[in-house]
Amino acid sequence: MLHGPPKTASNTGAAHMGGRIAIRGESASQLPKGRTMLNILPVLVNGTHATYGFIDSGAAPTLAARSRIDQMGLKGRPYNQIKATEASTFTCKEVLSLHIGNINTDEGEHVTDVLVADKINVSMDHAMSQEWLTKWPHLSDLEVISLPEYHRQVELIIGLDTTLNRVILDQRHGLKDEPSAYLTKLGWVVFGPTGTRSTSECRAHSLKKKVEANETYKTIYVKQVEKYLLKGYAELVPVDKLNHSDGRVSYMAHHGDKHPTKEKLRVFFDLKAKHAGTSLNDHLMQGPDLTSSLAGVLLRFREEKHAVTTDIQEMFHQVKVPEDDSNSLRFLWWPGGDTNQAIQEFRMTSRVFGARSSPSVINFCLRQAALDYGDKYGKEACCAIRRNFYVDNLLKSIDSEEDCIQLTKDLIGLCADGGFRLNQWTSSNKDILAAMPERERDKSVVTLDLSKDERPTEHALSIHWDMSSDEFTFKINLKEKPRTRRGVLSVVASLYDPLGFVAPFTLKGKMLLQDLCRRNLPWDEDMNNDEANRWSRWTSQLQCLGDFKIRRSLVPPDFGEVSSYQLHHFADASQTGYGVVTCLRTVSKNNQVNSTLVMGRARVAPLKRSSIPQMELTAAAVAAQLDYLASRSLDVDKLLESSLWLTRPEFLCQEQDSWPALPNDVKRAEIDGDPEVKQSAPIFSMFAPEPILVEKIAAKFSSRTKIVRIIA
What we know:
Layout: E1 2-3, E2 36-37, E3 40-45, E4 49-55, E5 62-65, H1 66-72, E6 77-84, E7 89-102, E8 108-117, H2 130-133, E9 143-144, E10 154-158, H3 163-166, E11 170-172, E12 180-184, E13 187-193, H4 196-213, H5 215-230, E14 234-236, E15 253-258, E16 265-270, H6 294-301, E17 306-312, H7 323-326, E18 330-333, E19 344-348, H8 358-377, H9 379-387, E20 389-390, E21 393-398, H10 401-417, E22 422-427, H11 430-434, H12 443-446, E23 457-460, E24 463-466, E25 471-473, H13 485-494, H14 503-518, H15 529-542, E26 549-551, E27 562-573, E28 577-588, E29 593-604, H16 615-618, H17 621-631, H18 636-641, H19 643-647, H20 668-671, H21 693-700, H22 704-711
Helix pairs in contact: 4-5, 8-9, 8-10, 9-10, 13-14, 14-15
């Protein structure tokens, strides 16, 4: 632990543990280059046991090593979960309470739920030493307290569930490449890289080994970075700015993700990487969420007869960053991509994909362009920018060819005036596509003869759109995954179905995952035979989803002018799951009727068992059928054959007076024992009416003669 003056090693009043705690500096001749110092310091546990703790700003719970708990002879409550922190991932099978205190005064805090981990993998190589402290003037008067060598291991991770992690009493900071120090309740901690640049150098060294081992990868990577420089998205840091020290200089590590099927690579800048317990994203404001709802954009894409899509070319890089801010977006790179040369400092001059603030900023700029140039290009173009863009992708449907062609021209002009270029246009209508500039069409359709060639499938936000048939389809690329809880989660999460077109089938995978969670199966442990068989059946059927098709347009192309729209919602539930589906019923002026699926949702029931929701009792007869399809799940072959799921019940295409009526009664056998149904019990009472006059007289007089005389 660290102490400021006037305390010395002789008067710190250290607590004892089997004698006394040694207070000494460490033998460290040189601070390793690129080393990152962590918030590591000695602490007292339960007042008598000394060890090292790591104050981890990326950990929610507090954890203790099994070795420390066993040495103290403690036993906690059973617990079985895997916890991830900034330091690592830990398997925890026990939870208990500990008092964690200052090594000198034992002042600290009682932490009620400390998780016991098998091992804590935090190296003491990241702890500060006395000799290192003397290298920085702002820390040179602090002193390090070290435990005996046989205690030199980190056995506690102090998480955000305690104020020992969150409360800062004092702080010290040096220059940009120097560590900082915070005074906590447990004492001073020194942390941070010996410079954020040094951390980036370490990552750059790893990147160098990777690109030199793969010439193809290197070629693509170098081409991408050099393109940033050529287009002005990035620049070499000017010589007079290299020593810029206003506290707003930061270095981003970067890596490349290559497209699995194309010779295309995107460079990702890591703004989430933490050093000194914080990251650049931690200091950026997210801003308002201006991104349109994905479900809303897709539903509007289905409204009209003709459809077009486009995207903004390199949208994030079209929005510039102020020069002062660009120093926070520095990165290291080799001139010309030649890894044999000395590495140099560059900086981004445009918005970075991955920055917390970027989505809000770029959406604001796009909407501002609509405000600035809306009068010039019309209301429809402005509305399309506000309602039909999902980040950089436009999905728009329009009723007439002429209006669609005009809108594409207006959108191209408006976005160009605002500094954005729309390209890669596609359409389900060959005449609309032919009216677009050839260089702006999607590369996958430019070389095709639009008069006879089949157009390829366009991928629209993880939903495949077959432009030739104007239908939505699914493509499955299922990779082999282990038969574990983690493997099931990986596959289930990869089925991106935002409108719930295949919700009844995906529900089966979710149910299996929930069953594994219910019995607390460890993430990487194989499932049992029954579960493995269920998984095999489900994944084998998953491949058949490639045969699933649903018309993009909610109304058939030859339906005519619509005179009536009706949305119908069906909901049902069971003990294992519940489903909701919405369909659209349209009536044309020629009295044609059409009904089609709009969207669906299927969810597993909560882990805590609950009764069937009350809505099931009032659902229409068709909802019971949908219960089988949605809530109780459906095999994929039945889903593909089910006209009920795709077009909704046949009665919706009939006159309303022929629709089935709601049931007038419910059989007692079907509701007995259901806690959602209020029980009734008969109550009997006796009612005595007011006696008439004759009865009163008869009760008063016993002589018949007197009664007759009085009444007469």
